[in-house]
Amino acid sequence: MSFRRTATQDHERSGVHIAAGDKVLLSYASANHDDRHFPEPERFNPSRDPLDHVAFGGGGPHFCIGAQLARMDLKLVFGELLRKIGTVELAGNPQRLRANQFAGWLHYPIRATAV
Hints:
Elements: E1 2-6, E2 11-13, E3 16-18, E4 23-27, H1 67-84, E5 85-90, E6 95-98, E7 103-107, E8 110-114
Antiparallel strand pairs: 1-4, 2-3, 5-8, 6-7
């Protein structure tokens, strides 16, 4: 969920001064949730534009080699699912998993209607 480092030299980032010795935290959980970049970052929107998010890698040396296969799989799964489901609505209280290593949902009850 996060990665912490200690700054080895003074630095300024986005107008914030970071002094040598300061602790700096990279929060993976905040990826794709920057409202300065994504309109309505908490709303699921598979056709979000721009779609330059962190999932499946944004290019560079750590780009996921299986990204294209994963995208194709997701398109097929959601395509079939959406053809068979009329509506989906929340059917109870979702319960999030919060931990330093993992994030996600423990329980997310939904009600779906057939087409």
